[in-house]
Design a protein that fits this description.
Chain B: InterPro entries: ATP_synth_b/b'su_bac/chlpt, ATP_synthase_B_chain. Chain B: Keywords: ATP synthesis, Cell membrane, CF(0), Hydrogen ion transport, Ion transport, Membrane, Transmembrane, Transmembrane helix, Transport. The complex is a heterodimer of chains A (about 260) and B (about 160). Chain A is mainly alpha-helical. Chain A is built from six helices and two strands; from the N terminus they run ββαααααα. Chain A has a two-stranded antiparallel sheet. In chain A, α2 crosses α3. Chain B has one domain. The longest helix of chain B has about 140 residues. The termini of chain B are far apart. The chains are: A mainly alpha (about 260), B mainly alpha (about 160). Chains A and B meet through β2, α1, α2, α3 and α4 of A and α2 of B.
Chain lengths: ~260, ~160
Amino acid sequence: MAESGKIDPMHQFAIEPLFGTDHLAIGGFNIAFTNSALYMVLTAVVLWIFVIGGMKGQQVPGRWQMAVETMIGFVKNLLISNVGEAGKKYIPYVFSLFMFILLANLLGLLPLGLVGVHPFTFTSHFTATGILAIMSFAIVLGVGFWKHGLHFFSLFVPHGTPVAMVVPLFFIELVSFMVRPFSLGLRLFVAMTAGHVLLKVLAGFVINSANASPLLGLTVGSASFILMIGISALEMLVAVIQAYVFALLTSVYINDAENLH
Amino acid sequence: MPQIAQIAETYSSQIFWLLVTFGFVFFVVGLGMVPKVQATVDARDGKISGDLDAAKAAFARADEVEAEYRARDTESRTAAQARVAQAKAEAAKASEAKLAAADAQVAQVIGAAEARIKAASDAAMSEIETVAAQAARDLVVKISGVEASEEAARNAVKAALAHG
């Protein structure tokens, strides 16, 4: 694909087994340790180290401790404003989710290509975002049925629905409810994929135009490069926003399960 | 698009490693460490609100003490003013009495002196009469050689003195 100087913007999403683990398997399922898995492990380790720095428990916190406490306080406020006091028990899950996605997005944006390593954003794979979305959805279902039993189905019939509309509305609401895990997982996957493709396409413009002629390199190439700088900043914002949206929607859905409506 | 092209070979590995890493994050970081950080935050919040309450209580106590002090101050001020007024009245009364006594004494002294002056001037007057009568008899004797009676001389002197 990369022949004749062409740059394939999709190659960055290719998953490659590392360390010769191609045929590692459990029960017939391949579990090769891939570049994607490496970034998942890195994300988990970075998050772990980040939170360790906040464990000093000082009454007057240092910068690092303050940063960790601020992130946890942010998730706590998010849950309290969306779910109420009952939302506090979901802080460990939503914090893990938010920070895991946030760090995955940001680690994937690191300009490691400069030192010859290929950064990988596993949140640009719907196999990964789908699992996270299904986990959130499963928690919503589990909490909903455990707390409200079959009464949970009243979620699909809003208050004040005319009797004639109950059955059609029930199905409409059911569909919109069932679509949630897909929209949750796809949103993150699409946002990450689109951003990285755009950056890679612009980078291709810079390289190919500079290779074509100095004039093109100075015009198209430098314009693309300037655009890349702005879009890189935008991508960092998107990385934060998508993590926030994932956590926000999860807490909104948890609110449905906790309080019906 | 590798996400779709590779899905058959990679989905199991992706799911497995995501569950392993996110499971580590959730159980070790989320359940193990986040509550401890939150406990620190809660302890700090508790300490801050406790300190604020203590400060508020101390403020209230200070206000109370100040009010008490003010009340005591006003009370003692009033008492002092009453004492001053009383002392002033007493002093005025005492000085009045002293003045009256001194006045009486002065009046007495003046009266006595006036009486003495009157007695002295009376005595001097009668002496002048006697001397004038004697002088008149001597004059009469020298001029007319007639001995005038003492009574006549005295009457004449009296009349002359009365006429000034």
